[in-house]
Amino acid sequence: MDRTKAGAGIAAGLILLLAACARAPTIVVGSKDFTEQVLLGEILAQQIEKRVGVRVDRKLHLGGTLLAHEALVQGSIDLYPEYTGTALTAILKRPPAGGRAAVLEAVRAAYRRQWRLAWLTPLGFTDTFAMMVRGETARAARLVTISDAARARPWRLGAGYEFRQRPDGLDGLLKTYGLRTQGDPLSMDLGLLYSALQGRQVDMIAANSTDGMASVLDVAILRDDRHYFPPYECAVVAREDTLARFPKLRPALEQLSGGLTDEAMRKLNYQVDGRHQPAAEVAAEFLRLFTVNSR
Predict the structure, then answer these.
(1) ∠ CA 62-65-69 to the nearest 5 degrees?
(2) Residue 94 vs residues 1, 97, 212, 233: alpha-carbon distances, Å
(3) Which residues of the chain have pLDDT under 50?
(4) Strand bridging mode 204-208 / 157-160
């Protein structure tokens, strides 16, 4: 065979192969930049790969709420996990009020109308903000609620960067409870909150109720007795055009609905934060057990 012709044939084949790869359907899964979100993003990605049979591009660790939302609206990602209360207050700029069903319906309707984005059935757990103190502190002062803490004394407070800026965050909390701070609250990465509390750099932190470390450390979660925080049910938010383009996608994602309890999410988070296991491995094991238990 003529080598020139053979070379031309191989080149043409490579061009066709590259063109086919470029046209290969892809779903882009995003997440914010903390453990729970990355884990959920990996769970969703693996579920799609397994149940839909489509290549998944992972864009995890996107950043905060506004960055993730903008990526979804602009089409840089096709879906990501979000929380109803966060959508209500941080995205829609509405007051933090209403029960679970009302908040879900409000954000579902607004997202559909404004951006043609669909909220799927919640995954089953609620990750609310949680004000925490050291267990010894709560026991000594008999602290059960945030109101108890507000009456006790000023607090050295630690919080994530986003919590200080959100409408359902720090300013509203201090005003609602009359909570006093000792000095300016410290802003830090979410992953540093527990070490700061244990190391006595702060006396109270604004953490999350499904944090893995909260299940193993001696910390007390103060009850939100004035119901300041809205419901934060976690659900998948997806572009409607993506759901229409991939008919198997919605059923695959809905298989996970109701499958994650608060306790289960804490355990998964601890596998990553406490035992330092890769998120992809934790996600794969969760899906394996989920599939077995769903049969």
Answers:
(1) 80
(2) 72, 8, 30, 16
(3) 1, 3-7, 19-20
(4) parallel
Both tokens assigned to 118 = 């669909």
**35-51 and 279-294 helices, crossing angle to 10°:** 50
How many Å apart are CA 185 and CA 167, to the nearest integer? 17
Neighbours of 142 (CB within 10 A): 8
Q: In the chain, which ranges are continuous DSSP H helix?
A: 3-23, 35-51, 65-74, 84-86, 100-115, 135-141, 146-152, 170-177, 193-198, 240-245, 249-254, 262-273, 279-294
Q: pTM here?
A: 0.82
Whether the Cβ atoms of residue 71 and residue 222 lie closer than 8 Å to each other: no
Rounded Cα distance between 117 and 120, Å, is 10
Which residue ranges form the domains of the chain, and what is each CATH number?
22-126+232-294 (3.40.190.10), 129-222 (3.40.190.120)
Tokens of 19: 């063109």
Q: How many CA atoms lie within 13 A of 63 on its CB side?
A: 7
Contact 89, 168 (CB under 8 A): yes
Beta-sheet pairing, 219-222 with 129-134: antiparallel
Distance CA 120, CA 217 (A): 34
Span 182-214, pLDDT tens digits: 999 999 988 899 999 999 999 999 999 999 998
Please check whether residue 61 is in contact with residue 77, taking contact to mean a CB–CB distance below 8 angstroms. Answer: no
End-to-end CA distance of the chain: 56
